[in-house]
Amino acid sequence: MNMNSISVLKLVLFIFWPWLVNSKGEQNRLLVNMTLVQNATALGAYCLDGSLPAYHLHRGFGAGVDNWLLQFEGGGWCNDIKSCLDRSKSNHGSTRYMNKWEVFSGILSNNASFNPDFYNWNRVKIRYCDGASFSGDAKFYNGTSLLYFRGQRIWQAIILDLLPKGLGHAKKAMLSGCSAGGLATFLHCDNFTSYLPNNASVKCLSDAGFFLDERDIALNHTMRSFYEGLITLQGVEPNLNLNCTSTLYYPHLCFFPQYALPFIETPFFILNSAYDVYQFHHILVPPSSDPRRHWDHCKLNVTACDTSQLNILQGFRIDMLTALRDFYQNSTRDGMYINSCFTHCQSETQDTWFAAGSPRIHNKTIAETVGDWYFSRNISKEIDCAYPCDTTCHHMI
Ligand SMILES: *[C@@H]1O[C@H](CO)[C@@H](O)[C@H](O)[C@H]1NC(C)=O
Ligand SMILES: *[C@@H]1O[C@H](CO)[C@@H](O)[C@H](O)[C@H]1NC(C)=O
Ligand SMILES: *[C@@H]1O[C@H](CO)[C@@H](O)[C@H](O)[C@H]1NC(C)=O
Ligand SMILES: *[C@@H]1O[C@H](CO)[C@@H](O)[C@H](O)[C@H]1NC(C)=O
Ligand SMILES: *[C@@H]1O[C@H](CO)[C@@H](O)[C@H](O)[C@H]1NC(C)=O
Ligand SMILES: *[C@@H]1O[C@H](CO)[C@@H](O)[C@H](O)[C@H]1NC(C)=O
Ligand SMILES: *[C@@H]1O[C@H](CO)[C@@H](O)[C@H](O)[C@H]1NC(C)=O
Ligand SMILES: *[C@@H]1O[C@H](CO)[C@@H](O)[C@H](O)[C@H]1NC(C)=O
Ligand SMILES: *[C@@H]1O[C@H](CO)[C@@H](O)[C@H](O)[C@H]1NC(C)=O
Ligand SMILES: *[C@@H]1O[C@H](CO)[C@@H](O)[C@H](O)[C@H]1NC(C)=O
Ligand SMILES: *[C@@H]1O[C@H](CO)[C@@H](O)[C@H](O)[C@H]1NC(C)=O
Ligand SMILES: *[C@@H]1O[C@H](CO)[C@@H](O)[C@H](O)[C@H]1NC(C)=O
């Protein structure tokens, strides 16, 4: 290619760039700035490293001015001193290292053509900096190293900060979150309801937060052990659902959504893939369960999985649907969308939430199904057929 054709290419790109960006739905990208919760010190609510917790708020307007959507950020967990110390020096453990501006897309978008039902609500993204899904209450100090495990207090500090900003007289409200934030939604849903007016309509949505209590392929309880370490280190147990912990023989298990779910009183929507990539890689086939790395290709690219690997993945899907059977059958106030895509988190990205090529079940997008459930327009319990039948998926490769 000579210089001339490069200049022509540059010119073409320059002219068509806005169109290219527009075609991906990224034009009008909404960036929202960070609010540090100054009053958090009064509650001892700190990030792992002692920095102040934070959220990003974009105000509602028009008919949505009294409605509030709170969205927990996700980002895994830390379950021992070393992993929490590492985390405290990163954007997952300290607001010092976080982006001060966040993109609001998908369920957080302010544009009706990208987010038909929640675009005009007050929308809040709650930053994740405690490493225990906003549920710990402890502190580590050995003379040299200091770590705050104060997720529960961060949750409370943020709610108390938002109540006088209008949350306290909300007409409609929804608590949501993705991944570790989706798990936080299960843990805090009823507590959220308790802060809102009795006549408000309050519901909760978990995206990719239905982490299963499942053995890995070596038959070890890898995830159970991981959560046990986390619960002990961060002092989580007193903050779990009391009805659950007083019923179960092993109260720690109430950290798993499948055990806490029957005790949640607020209407709930579960959005999850039956082949959630995080669960596949960390619960079903963690590195410790596959020392000879037979699964490496399959993990990166599902079309490279062999028949026995696919059978194991189909078994995981069946176990997830079994854990959700009562939830599916019992109640009409709840909703679900369990699709069959190799993915993780589908409500925050525009492509998967609501776009021309978004995933669909029975021709309904995730945004339409969540909206139908929230506004009681229709029964919203969708279960996809098993992999590979769904051609609308955006598989991670
Ligand atoms: C950032 O957010 C604060 C509220 O925390 C607001 O007062 C301020 O005007 C915002 N700054 C910009 C540049 O938008
Ligand atoms: C919403 O997005 C559409 C399609 O990109 C655009 O035409 C419209 O101007 C946007 N509206 C607002 C309020 O940003
Ligand atoms: C405190 O804990 C850190 C991290 O585990 C360790 O590196 C350090 O040596 C400990 N300090 C003391 C005095 O035990
Ligand atoms: C909600 O959680 C806070 C702590 O974050 C606690 O003080 C309060 O009692 C809880 N409310 C209910 C109704 O459980
Ligand atoms: C912070 O706390 C003080 C004392 O409790 C209270 O008077 C003040 O209104 C609070 N400020 C905010 C922004 O919540
Ligand atoms: C709830 O009750 C308050 C006080 O009576 C009223 O101002 C508010 O509009 C009501 N909200 C809804 C959603 O009905
Ligand atoms: C997993 O289980 C095997 C036996 O099934 C055991 O030898 C191994 O130590 C376990 N690995 C881990 C990481 O727990
Ligand atoms: C659903 O119904 C079954 C049978 O009536 C009951 O045992 C179970 O606890 C219920 N589950 C939930 C989530 O309400
Ligand atoms: C939780 O326990 C309280 C107090 O015992 C009880 O009133 C409530 O009905 C229980 N909720 C559920 C969902 O079991
Ligand atoms: C995925 O694996 C299949 C089968 O092994 C292969 O044909 C394909 O090229 C791979 N795709 C990518 C993106 O690596
Ligand atoms: C699927 O829904 C779209 C609108 O979202 C509609 O245009 C299309 O006709 C529907 N397809 C089928 C097969 O119903
Ligand atoms: C409700 O859902 C059913 C099944 O998906 C569909 O056939 C019907 O058209 C929907 N009704 C409305 C009002 O959207």
From TrEMBL:
Its main location: secreted. Residues 1-23 form the signal peptide. Pfam families: PAE. Coiled coil: none annotated. GO terms for biological process: cell wall organization. The keyword Hydrolase applies. Keywords: Cell wall, Cell wall biogenesis/degradation, Hydrolase, Secreted, Signal. The keyword Secreted applies. It is found in: Secreted, Cell wall. GO terms for molecular function: pectin acetylesterase activity. InterPro entries: PAE/NOTUM. It comes from the Eukaryota. Its EC number is 3.1.1.-. Belongs to the pectinacetylesterase family. Hydrolyzes acetyl esters in homogalacturonan regions of pectin. In type I primary cell wall, galacturonic acid residues of pectin can be acetylated at the O-2 and O-3 positions. Decreasing the degree of acetylation of pectin gels in vitro alters their physical properties. This is Pectin acetylesterase. It comes from Solanum lycopersicum.
